[in-house]
Amino acid sequence: MKFLSQALVVVCATLFGSVFGDVAASTFSPARPPAIPLAVKSPYLSTWLNAGSDGGNGGYLAGQWSQFWAGQTAAWTGMIRVDGTTYTWMGAPTGPALVTQKSFEYTSTKSVFTMDVGGLVEMNITFLSTITPDDQERQSLIFSYLDVGVQSLDGKSHDVQLYTDISAEWVSGDHSAVAQWDQDTTSDGISYHKVYRQTQLLFSETADQADWGYWYYATKKVQGLSFQSGSDTTVRGNFQSNGSLPNTKDTDYRAINAQYPVFGFASDLGTVSGSVSTLYTLGLTQEQAIQFDGATGVVPLSSLWTSYFSKETDALSFVYNDFANATQTAAALDSKISSDSIGAGGQDYLTITSLAARQAFGAIQLVGNLTKQYLFLKEISSDGNIQTVDVIFPFHPILVYLKPELLKLLLDPLFENQESGQYPNMYSMHDIGSHYPNATGHPDGNDEQQPLEECGNMLIMTLAYAQRAQDKAYLTQHYKILKQWTQYLIQEALIPANQISTDDFAGSLANQTNLALKGIIGIEAMAVIANLTGNTADGANYTSIAHDYIAKWQVYGIAHDATPPHTTLGYGLNDTHGLLYNLYGDQELGLKLVPQAVYDMQSTFYPSVAETYGVPLDTRHNYTKSDWQMFAAAIASTDTKAMFISKVANWINDTPTSRAETDWYESTSGAWPVNGGQFIARPVVGGHFALLALQSQSAAGFHN
Ligand SMILES: *[C@@H]1O[C@H](CO)[C@@H](O)[C@H](O)[C@H]1NC(C)=O
Ligand SMILES: *[C@@H]1O[C@H](CO)[C@@H](O)[C@H](O)[C@H]1NC(C)=O
Ligand SMILES: *[C@@H]1O[C@H](CO)[C@@H](O)[C@H](O)[C@H]1NC(C)=O
Ligand SMILES: *[C@@H]1O[C@H](CO)[C@@H](O)[C@H](O)[C@H]1NC(C)=O
Ligand SMILES: *[C@@H]1O[C@H](CO)[C@@H](O)[C@H](O)[C@H]1NC(C)=O
Ligand SMILES: *[C@@H]1O[C@H](CO)[C@@H](O)[C@H](O)[C@H]1NC(C)=O
Ligand SMILES: *[C@@H]1O[C@H](CO)[C@@H](O)[C@H](O)[C@H]1NC(C)=O
Ligand SMILES: *[C@@H]1O[C@H](CO)[C@@H](O)[C@H](O)[C@H]1NC(C)=O
Ligand SMILES: *[C@@H]1O[C@H](CO)[C@@H](O)[C@H](O)[C@H]1NC(C)=O
Ligand SMILES: *[C@@H]1O[C@H](CO)[C@@H](O)[C@H](O)[C@H]1NC(C)=O
């Protein structure tokens, strides 16, 4: 009986294989994300493989071109020749059959594909984008790794050649722009293609890609390595017919889209029986990174890596030779996030956090020098603003969890600009510039107005940092402006005027319950700050105001007679509700301003309005936000927390959206918002670490 059924399986498999071709589907672990991060390290190195069904191929590396997050093709090609037959393992070059993808797996830093090449050899393809919160030198380098392992699958030896290229599409979003390039070898034997926009447009973007800087695609110069630059058909054709490249340079510098120039490497691996691996690194060097309107007016700021390396190729060599260290450091971070996430919310929570890590860090960039560093953040996709306070706020839990000192480096430019009198309004600015990388401020005060939101955010995040870093001096240094913003909250927080909140796409509304709560928590945060810095009269006053307000807020903002009772979207609108995500600040700062009964009430309420993929943001629409759901989950009861986590993890696996993870989607279908735009690759997924940020409480005694 047993023997018979086994025999049957073999017969079926053979039939399927021959009659239907490749029917094998890849496995996806821990989930099939909407888009797979390939090289994601900064706002300008952000290349993805679309996976969701509304524009992706389901998550297969071969057969589809990779894209810059904004949707332009960034062609990255992989082919392999085994015993004279060529196959494609990455991208969609004309000609070769595709390898069979067996599995895909992601961790916080890696995307790993396993391929079966004609039943002859196996390939392990690892995309590694490091995250090094404790190491500014490595974090400042805008490079990503591609490691390709090949070994025999059938126990026999095979003749193998490996190929990869990038196109000039990587160097500008304007594909009619002229690209220029070169090929050379460093003194320590790293062979590289250097590609760039011929006319460098400093601090400019086209379709969100940088129009300046130099791209490097590199590998070790070993025996059997050959290279070529030239048109896509020429270079790829040479490999397909010969398995090697002629070591020639095309010097006809031309438009990115004119006989698409590509930059290829071919490696003759010879006779492969055991495992052989080939490492590539791909990255961008920009000496100048940001324009910043700081204490002395607008100045250019250098990329921080320039403080460690005097030449671009020195940085390139360092990165290439650092792979062993990078692998170990990444494995340590993967394992920390894995064990902490599983502890806080199980495997489903790890599915959520590990997908978010590279996307969150991929929106930030370290600049400055060894004396003074700044961290800048791009509001990717929603409008490109730089240092948006209400984007830093949903993002900030990942930094509170991994490295609170980096949160300080994000807040510093905002303080510096406003404290030096460059912003005329008494409330906090919304952002420090309308478009990355120009942090040139808003001297006219005409930035997007979210005064209540941003004053609350600044107070909460400043204290969150200071508590974790034990940095009272930071509170003293900024006391004056923090007090100014508190004054605004005292006037405006309890009865919020008709205004937008951070969820500006939902429109404006007076008396928003959740917005008022943020302001009131901000006042109590300032009470703590005042007490910590010896301003005890202020401390007593703000404490009494915040407690008075929170008592009134519970009367205005709660539908006590509803079944079950819940907070409302707006005061007195008893048949409305919304995610009360701003309650998170009370717990993050250890304030205990809001009674436990409010937490319990919301925990009981949310499951009663949950849809398939989550709890709607509020009663106006069925769409929701993943970041705010994780804020709500972090402070919810065990069961309600588990509900949020399981719905968001299921959404990741099921969503038809095919672009770098959106934070805004329909809770019913999991698709894009029905009546809205599309949010793509936004840093707010740093908020998916909300549960873990709560585990890094301040040391005892630092509350007051
Ligand atoms: C792929 O990875 C698996 C698991 O680590 C390993 O057993 C196998 O040898 C690897 N194959 C190649 C081609 O590197
Ligand atoms: C930044 O400002 C410069 C002028 O200093 C301008 O040329 C450039 O287009 C701006 N960049 C963006 C992305 O708006
Ligand atoms: C293939 O290699 C041979 C010998 O090196 C060379 O003569 C021929 O031009 C090459 N063909 C292509 C398409 O590169
Ligand atoms: C990586 O190198 C740094 C020095 O730059 C060292 O401190 C660290 O321990 C190394 N990490 C690993 C995992 O080797
Ligand atoms: C370092 O950066 C700070 C802030 O931009 C600047 O004031 C200082 O002059 C710089 N130091 C050096 C040595 O360039
Ligand atoms: C806002 O709420 C307060 C307190 O309930 C109320 O007096 C006021 O009329 C409300 N404003 C609006 C515009 O609804
Ligand atoms: C601040 O200190 C005052 C006493 O000076 C105390 O009444 C108040 O509760 C403290 N506030 C907070 C938030 O700790
Ligand atoms: C408390 O703060 C409010 C608002 O800033 C201010 O009007 C009031 O005078 C302060 N009270 C005391 C006792 O300092
Ligand atoms: C809303 O409910 C509260 C008590 O839960 C009640 O006092 C208030 O009158 C209700 N408001 C409206 C407009 O029904
Ligand atoms: C939410 O979806 C449900 C079920 O499809 C529908 O009945 C309801 O009208 C939707 N609500 C809104 C605000 O669109």
From TrEMBL:
Residues 346-692 form the Glutaminase A central domain. Residues 1-25 form the signal peptide. PANTHER family: GLUTAMINASE A (PTHR31987:SF1), GLUTAMINASE A-RELATED (PTHR31987). Keywords: Signal. It comes from Lachnellula occidentalis. InterPro entries: Glutaminase_GtaA, GtaA_central, GtaA_N. Residues 109-340 form the Glutaminase A N-terminal domain. The keyword Signal applies. This is Glutaminase A. The keyword Signal applies. It comes from the Eukaryota.
